[in-house]
Specification:
The chain is mostly beta strands and about 130 residues long. A hairpin with a 6-residue loop joins strand 4 and strand 5.
Amino acid sequence: QVQLVESGGELVQAGGSLRLSCAASGRTFSNDAMGWFRQAPGKEREFVVAISRSGGGTYYADSVKGRFTISRDNAKNTVYLQMNSLKPEDTAVYYCAASPITYSGSYYSTRTYAYWGQGTQVTVSS
């Protein structure tokens, strides 16, 4: 059974930092591109960041550039999202997603990802 499990979300004050983790199981994700998306109440799920299969390429939404950093540890089948200088508008449920090599398309699109986690809540207070 393929699973992606996010963790690390919590309540934090504006300006603070959080590190989200996404642990994958049930398949080898080292050949998958990985992404983080988020969804705020009443809004559509939006792209945050993605990392290529090799880890050599990273892609960020303009809203998080310079504040968020994605990384991956293929030996641990885990992807991380370091979030610094958090703002209230970062409040959302954050989802981890995997895009197998057989899936083509833009990393920015949810349709490019075949597997999704259940999400972890990040709340940033002002």
